[in-house]
């Protein structure tokens, strides 16, 4: 790269870090990239760090030593996150979103990149310190959430299928009981998709009783993997506590009431905002 003026270098360095979250970048790499002294690079990083923190974009961690450098961790202030989630709750309360069975239509929202980016950054904030190896979700609606979260954590995504695909080779399949309707269903994961003993973050779009997530956890047991966290976009509050299959999870929104006759719903911020 040609030598840049300091103002241009600051812009380019900022973009470089934003595009590589949770990646350690050495001062030497920056110095070589911008043909600048390490002392100048250090001053630039101090400015970027201050802006990131003041604007709530995240944290810039410095690691000392010969193998050290800087690492950008995207974060979202809980106050900002709450404002976004309240807007999501208002949108989910629209009567036309009520579907038979008390479900909410959310597909259009899951297809909005800017909204998914916000939600992904929230999950990345929650699970930033879990030492994760991979993000897991089940096809299909949870995929945008998983990829948005993975972008900010700089991790690969593994997708659990409802049935085995011949293009994915041999797979591990299990039967599980759906928590909402008690039906026996099947899910599978290609053997090549996940290494053994991986630390996994499960992301799902909607959780009623938690049967699907419990199924994924049982599937991970076959890979000797560890469930390091569970993130849920919207959880249902209309499930009795003794029917809930999960206790340890983070939800961003909670559907607390649905009147199928009037199509009136109540959606509140999830348990993340109660901590």
Could you please describe the fold and organization of this structure?
By secondary structure, this protein is an alpha/beta fold. It has 2 domains: 6-74, Orthogonal Bundle (Arc Repressor Mutant, subunit A); 78-274, Rossmann fold. 34% of the residues lie in helices and 26% in strands. It has 8 helices and 10 strands. The protein has helices at residues 6-18, 27-34, 38-54, 78-92, 107-110, 113-126, 143-153, 211-221, and strands at residues 58-63, 69-74, 134-138, 157-160, 171-177, 184-190, 199-207, 226-236, 250-259, 264-269. The strands form 3 sheets. The chain has a 6-stranded mixed sheet with strand order 4-3-7-8-9-10, with helices on both faces. Strands 1-2 form a two-stranded antiparallel ribbon. Helix 1 (6-18) packs across helix 3 (38-54) and helix 2 (27-34) crosses helix 3. The protein is globular. GO terms for molecular function: DNA binding. Homodimer. Belongs to the purine/pyrimidine phosphoribosyltransferase family. PurR subfamily. It holds the Pfam family PuR_N. Residues 112-243 form the Phosphoribosyltransferase domain.
Keywords:
8 helices; 275 residues; DNA binding; Rossmann fold; 2 domains; Arc Repressor Mutant, subunit A; alpha/beta; two-stranded antiparallel sheet; 6-stranded mixed β-sheet
């Amino acid at each position: 790269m040609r030598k840049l003026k300091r103002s241009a270098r600051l812009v380019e360095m900022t973009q470089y870090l934003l595009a590589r979250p949770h990646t350690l970048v050495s001062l030497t790499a920056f110095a070589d990239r911008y043909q600048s002294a390490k002392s100048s690079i250090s001053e630039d990083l101090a400015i970027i760090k201050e802006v990131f923190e003041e604007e709530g974009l995240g944290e810039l961690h410095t690691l000392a030593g010969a193998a050290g450098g800087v690492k950008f961790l995207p974060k979202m202030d809980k106050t900002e996150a709450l404002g976004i989630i309240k807007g999501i709750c208002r949108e989910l309360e629209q009567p036309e979103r009520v579907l038979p069975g008390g479900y909410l239509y959310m597909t259009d929202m899951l297809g909005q990149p800017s909204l998914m980016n916000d939600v992904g950054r929230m999950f990345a904030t929650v699970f930033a310190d879990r030492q994760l190896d991979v993000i897991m979700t089940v096809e299909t609606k949870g995929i945008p959430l998983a990829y948005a979260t993975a972008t900010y954590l700089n991790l690969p995504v593994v997708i659990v299928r409802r049935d085995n695909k011949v293009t994915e080779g041999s797979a591990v399949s299990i039967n599980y009981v759906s928590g909402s309707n008690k039906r026996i269903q099947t899910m599978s994961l290609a053997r090549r998709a996940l290494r053994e003993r991986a630390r996994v973050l499960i992301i799902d779009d909607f959780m009623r009783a938690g049967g699907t997530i419990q199924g994924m956890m049982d599937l991970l047991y076959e890979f000797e993997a560890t469930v390091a966290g569970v993130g849920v976009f919207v959880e249902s509050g209309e499930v009795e506590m003794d029917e809930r299959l999960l206790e340890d999870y983070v939800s961003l929104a909670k559907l607390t009431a649905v009147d199928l006759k009037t199509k009136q719903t109540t959606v509140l911020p999830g348990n993340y905002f109660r901590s």
